Request: fold
Amino acid sequence: QKEVEQDPGPLSVPEGAIVSLNCTYSNSAFQYFMWYRQYSRKGPELLMYTYSSGNKEDGRFTAQVDKSSKYISLFIRDSQPSDSATYLCAHSVINDYKLSFGAGTTVTVRA
Amino acid sequence: SQTIHQWPATLVQPVGSPLSLECTVEGTSNPNLYWYRQAAGRGLQLLFYSVGIGQISSEVPQNLSASRPQDRQFILSSKKLLLSDSGFYLCAWSPDSGIKETQYFGPGTRLLVL
Reply:
């Protein structure tokens, strides 16, 4: 079993729709949870990170963590064509620098 | 602000040839450094990480090696490339203090072995 399972997609949504991206994890020692955005042929860019259960907002982006069910989500409101990218979830383990990454979900926002 | 550089951006090499990819970080001291490989349509595979000069940890046994000759320089090498070494190679850094788990990636090197 992989440590991090991410909904494979791809997702295609119309402009202005809400995008919902999901990951599940198996290791209870996971501490920090991150979301990265990766445009085609570019390096991943850190979007958001969070530590605790609950919601964290940053503009149109909301990261949601449910530690009891080991589930994390990223919501993108009012999606734009510029949001078209692959989104990667990642998690760290306590006292370990390494991150475990999901395989990524590719999102296309249609104008 | 911190900046991470990788070069070259693209590389086409024949099987059996050597490899040297370089990564440098600016604007921070004593970063943790990482090399990842991303195969087409797949997730990130951690290859090596380093917490200091000369300190390298290998995650995946293979014909690649890494070195950290200076605090903010990380090099990925191979003596003889294999076809399976093709991929997108990414260098990343994370801070030595604060939230050490946050990793920041470079632009990547696309390697094609023929």
Observations:
- Chain B touches chain A through 24 residues (CB under 8 Å).
- The radius of gyration of chain B is 13 Å.
